[in-house]
Amino acid sequence: MNRGKVAGPRALLRRLREVMAGGGTPQDRLDAVTSLIATNMVAEVCSLYLRRAGDVLELFSTYGLRPEAVHQTRLRVGEGLIGDIVAHGRMLALSDAQSHPQFAYRPETGEERFHSLLGVPLQRGGRAIGALAVQNRSEREYTSEESEALQTVAMVLAELVHAAGLLSVDEVIDIDGNATLPLRFEGMPLAAGIAEGHVYRHRGAMVVRELVSDDTAAESARLERAIEGFLERIRGLVADHAPRIGEAEKEVLHTYRMFAEDEGWMTRMRAAVRDGLTAEGAVRRVQDENRRRLQLAPGPYFRERIADFDDLSNQLLRQLANRPEIGATDMPENAVLVARTLGPAELLEYDPDRLRAIVLGEGSPTSHMVLVARSLNIPVVGRLASVLGRLDAGEAVVVDGWRGLVYARPDESVYDDIREYGENEERRRRYYESMRNLPAHSADGVSFQLHLNVGLLGELPLLAATGASGIGLLRTELLFLTHPTFPSIEEQTAAYRHVFDAAGEKPVIFRTFDLGGDKVLPHLDQPLELEENPAMGWRAIRVGLDRPSVLRNQLRALLTAAEGRPLQVMFPMVAEFAELARAQAILDLEVARARRVSLPAPEKVSVGVMLEVPSLVWQLEEVVRVADFVSVGTNDLAQYFFASDRTNPRLARRYDTLSPGFLRLLVQVEAICRRAGKPLTVCGDMAADPLEAACLAGLGYRSLSIPAQAFGSVKAGLRSLDCAAISTYLADLEVRGAGRGHSLREDLKHFVQDHGFKF
Ligand code: PEP
Ligand code: MG
Predict the structure, then answer these.
(1) Are strands 471-475 and 74-76 parallel, antiparallel or unpaired?
(2) Which of 546, 695, 723, 749 has the smallest set of CB atoms within 10 Å of its CB?
(3) Distance, CA of 204 to CA of 322 (rounded, Å)
(4) Annotated catalytic residue: which of 115, 241, 368, 451?
(5) Relative to the CA of 686, which ligand 1 atom is closest?
(6) What is the pLDDT of residue 482?
């Protein structure tokens, strides 16, 4: 047997299509399909699970498991390995599935004989509608070629299942009993402002019907023509809108255009056509792959790029259908656009004079579309997937982008409430704006430095817009988000040079790559192995030390880009002093090399450590003897300190950074750095909250690095703060033993408010 070698999906795809279009009952056809896949994949089992109402996954067909389990074996979404694949829309490749903690044994299937499992989700319209899994008796490792092939098959199968009407995947929307009272939906505020209008449904997503091709050459030619037209169109859109938006948004559009021109994306689509897909199928295939990778990425940043890729793919699909325009001629005068997701190019295709507000099923505060909407003053509310179906086309709605509320059937009380709230917010915005050029001094004259956190080149203009002292945290990994392969030294050098040039005289702290955690790294060519606990896995400096060439190349690019200017480098996730010493040695090698090849050596190279892992606190004395500065990443530090996943919404408010224990840790850190005379900054989100920033000030922290949107409230807070009073109060709290509770938040809030604190 030809184990581990897949014939390539092309012939299989063709056969699948024939079988599904052929005769027999739907069950006969599905059974033929699972048997076909098992044979082709050299697997002993192939099973298809589909999602039924109530989020239940039902075994619809199997080759290799007991036939009597078909339509009997059911799992909840999230239950067992299959449930996990569907819940997270992710692939699982396990050599010993039964030892996986998620494994849920179903005796009726007889699956105890099979050890390895490769499973992928069946996705349609951005939703997992089932899962396809192959199993083998032996404990075997599946190759990346096999997993790619199974994903392609799953994509085609999802469409075939849908076309065969085997399953209704439409969500059941509960009908509201009372049709007269206003309905209030709470989502996530993404772009501020209030607007009213009538629901207009976005028709962006294109349906792809033909996925498998018989004529590769013709499909390749179609793809090339479409790419050409698409690029022309994107460049045109960007140029047309440049005059009406601000500098920051222009940069955003520029970055977006770079996404569109990404060679890696094109290369993967061309390869998919060669594998036997139509041009549309290839776009979908690569789109699904991007979604899957980004959805699984450890931090929120990668996930926030999903809408951009969806947008680009939809544009390209429209081009392929010769319908490049969105065709919104029937849009009402005052439209509230309702969409699951929306990309920046799609947004720009609508007439901004008619567009009053946007309501999204997904969406995130830093997505490109949201940044563009803000510059066009269009309020946006996101994360309302479960209620989109309740907003009927043409229905009157009010959108409150300040608080993230959407009202359907609004009455007078709704209007009164939002009017008052909007006026207050507007006053606050003007107040923040008025202090943009004022120094960050507390009311009693203590001086602070406020730096900016940056992750995208498009954010660089915010350095001037916020009046920040410099960039306190440049998350370098985010600059290369769209690169399907690891960025070359040249690509890195160009990006870092761009940052240096944009920052001018202002200092920039470059954090080396904080990549890793699991196989979904868009950048590193890693084996397809899932980590059980990615946040605590192979990430950040651990990757850099184990793959010194990655770190060396990055440092080399930074030294080259500095062109003699001072360079500040910071290492993330350092857990012990020895790691700093090793990273420093790698940097020394690169500095020596730069001198040898007579690059203009930077005036000075400073080395910083991110304090994110609690263990390092007990070696901080050694660290500050070597490092030039320390920056506290409170997001990760709190996650490891409390053993509380920072991305788990159920734990979001469970522990508080204003708790006695965490504050004591920060007191220790400040004291060690002060004694050593080493600059100390807080660059985690704790610094971005006005009350928490006030508390940090009270603990002696004088430098904060925060995202642009936090500048107004943090600066306003610090300028109204009596720093001496809060320091004394915090020291007293300690003495009085008030620190025994869960959090000092309420005490602190009352104290600062009684002392004139405003934010
Ligand atoms: C942190 O952990 O606080 C931090 C600033 O780094 P990131 O949020 O990028 O992990
Ligand atoms: Mg971190």
Answers:
(1) unpaired
(2) 546
(3) 14
(4) 368
(5) 3
(6) 55
Buried b (16+ CB within 10 A) or exposed e, 666-680: beebbebbeeeebeb
pLDDT band at residue 206 under the 50/70/90 scheme: confident
Sheet (strand 355-360) strand order: 183-186, 405-408, 396-400, 194-201, 335-339, 355-360, 380-382, 188-191
Residue 396: which of 335, 314, 350 has the closest Cα? 335
Average of per-residue pLDDT across 284-311: 73
What is the pTM for the complete model shown?
A: 0.62
Check whether 566 has a pLDDT greater than 80. yes
Query: Quick one: three-class SS letters along 457-498?
Result: HHHCCHHHHHCCCCEEEEEHHHHCCCCCCCCCHHHHHHHHHH
Residue scoring higher pLDDT (519 or 432) = 432
Between the CA of 390 and the centroid of ligand 2 the distance, in Å, is 38
pLDDT tier at 530 (50, 70, 90 boundaries)? low
481, 635, 645, 686: residue to mutate for ligand 1 pocket, most atoms within 8 A of CB: 635
Give the pair of three-digit tokens for residue 456.
């995208």
Distance CA 759, CA 747 (A): 17
Dmax (CA) for the chain in angstroms is 83
Across the chain, what does the average pLDDT equal?
A: 85
* DSSP 8-state symbol, 99: G
Atom of ligand 1 nearest to the CA of 475: 9
Q: How far is the CA of 517 from the centre of ligand 1 (A)?
A: 14
The number of beta carbons lying within 10 Å of the beta carbon of residue 546 is 11
Q: Which of 219-223, 265-269, 685-689 has the lowest mean pLDDT?
A: 265-269
Query: Where does residue 107 rank: exposed (0-12), middle (13-18), buried (19+ CB within 10 A)?
Result: exposed
pLDDT confidence band for 527 (50 / 70 / 90): very low
CA distance 430 to 483: 39
Of the residues 46, 673, 683, 723, only one is catalytic, namely 683
51 DSSP β-pair partners: 57
**Of the bound ligands, which one is closest to the alpha carbon of residue 683?**
1
**For a substitution probing ligand 1, which of 683, 686, 689, 704 has the most ligand atoms within 8 Å of its CB?**
683
As a whole number, mean pLDDT of residues 520-528 equals 49
Q: How many CA atoms lie within 13 A of 280 on its CB side?
A: 18
573 Cα: distance to centroid of ligand 1 (angstroms): 9
- Read off the pLDDT band of 178 (50, 70, 90): very low
User: In the annotation, is 368 catalytic?
Assistant: yes
DSSP 539: B
Is 483 designated active site?
no
Q: Ligand 1 pocket: which residues have CB below 6 Å?
A: 473, 475, 514, 612, 633-636, 683-684
Helix (H) or strand (E) segment spanning residue 94: strand 92-94
pLDDT at 310: 79
**Side chain identity, residue 524:** L
**Predicted local distance difference test score (pLDDT) of residue 655:** 93
**Strand order in 92-94's β-sheet?**
74-76, 56-63, 45-52, 127-136, 116-124, 92-94
Nearest Cα neighbor of 501 from 469, 462, 454, 460 is 460
Q: Which residue has the tokens 């939002």?
A: 418
Q: Give 108-127 pLDDT, tens digit per residue.
A: 898 888 999 999 999 876 67
